[in-house]
């Protein structure tokens, strides 16, 4: 059974760096055909794709966030991390980690973490 | 203005049928965009409903179906139930590893 669990500070100061970890169990983050994505949702608003990392370590980012975003994988601990720099109050959101299936069946998010709320405030 | 468009809100009567759509600000949605659909209740993570345009995710009842209607992807719910009331999101694969969410549709069952 695949499980994803987000973790990290719930409060970050403006202009500082947000850092989150997604701990994956039940499958290796290097398992072929799967990418690992970060998605965020500001309070009361819709979902926004931030970016993904492939099983080969290739990264893909939303153009609107690319300059501030880094996604990486720690294969020894089976974790995926998100770094978002220079945060502002607009970055306050619930952050979800999700597995992205790229098999012949299609391209879609097939497993989701529960999400973690990060508030940007001084 | 969102690249991927959805109706902000829709309503359906219990037992009725409703179709939610997912379009592009410019251009037509085709199967090449691998449309997928998700539902989300408040405070919960999204749940996958449909992928690859019309494939139901495991455990999703056949009341939910996906298709391409005209120049948009569509999610049709038949026999609407009270617990279908939630937010629905589509995602399109734009190529080069990039996915884009629609703005979401808030469905009311009344």
Kindly report the average pLDDT value of chain A.
96
Radius of gyration of chain B equals 13 Å
How far do the termini of chain A sit from each other? 39 Å
- The Rg value of chain A, from CA coordinates, equals 14 Å
Most residues in contact: chain pair: A-B, 26 and 27 residues
Could you characterize the architecture of this molecule?
The complex is a heterodimer of chains A (122) and B (110). Chain A has strands at 3-7, 11-12, 18-25, 34-41, 48-53, 59-61, 69-74, 79-84, 93-101, 108-112, 116-120. By secondary structure, chain A is an all-beta fold. In chain A, the strands form 2 sheets. In chain A, strands 2, 4, 5, 6, 9, 10 and 11 form a 7-stranded mixed β-sheet that branches. In chain A, strands 1-3-8-7 form a 4-stranded antiparallel β-sheet, with no helix packed on it. Chain B is 0% helix and 51% strand. In chain B, β7 (64-69) and β8 form a beta hairpin.
Task: Looking at this protein, list some descriptive labels.
heterodimer, A: mainly beta, 4-stranded antiparallel sheet, 11 strands, 0% helix, B: 110 residues, mainly beta, 7-stranded mixed sheet
């Amino acid at each position: 059974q695949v499980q994803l669990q987000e973790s990290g500070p719930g409060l970050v100061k403006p202009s500082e760096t947000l850092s989150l970890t997604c701990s994956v169990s039940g499958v290796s983050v290097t398992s072929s055909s799967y990418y690992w994505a970060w998605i965020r949702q500001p309070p009361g608003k819709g979902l926004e794709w931030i970016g993904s990392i492939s099983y080969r370590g290739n990264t893909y980012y939303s153009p609107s966030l690319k300059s501030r975003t880094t996604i990486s994988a720690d294969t020894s601990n089976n974790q995926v991390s998100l770094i978002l720099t220079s945060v502002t109050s607009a970055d306050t959101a619930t952050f979800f980690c999700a597995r992205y299936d790229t098999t012949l069946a299609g391209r879609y998010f097939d497993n989701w973490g529960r999400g973690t709320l990060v508030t940007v405030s001084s | 203005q969102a690249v991927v468009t959805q109706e902000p809100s829709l309503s359906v009567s219990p037992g009725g049928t409703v179709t939610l759509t997912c379009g592009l600000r410019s251009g037509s949605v085709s199967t090449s965009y691998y449309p997928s659909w998700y539902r989300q209740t408040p405070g919960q993570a999204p749940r996958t409903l449909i992928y690859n345009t019309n494939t139901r995710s495991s455990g999703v009842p056949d009341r939910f179906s996906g298709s391409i209607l005209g120049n948009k992807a569509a999610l049709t719910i038949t026999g609407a139930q009270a617990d279908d009331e939630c937010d629905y999101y589509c995602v399109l694969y734009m190529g080069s590893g990039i996915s884009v969410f629609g703005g979401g549709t808030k469905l009311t069952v009344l």
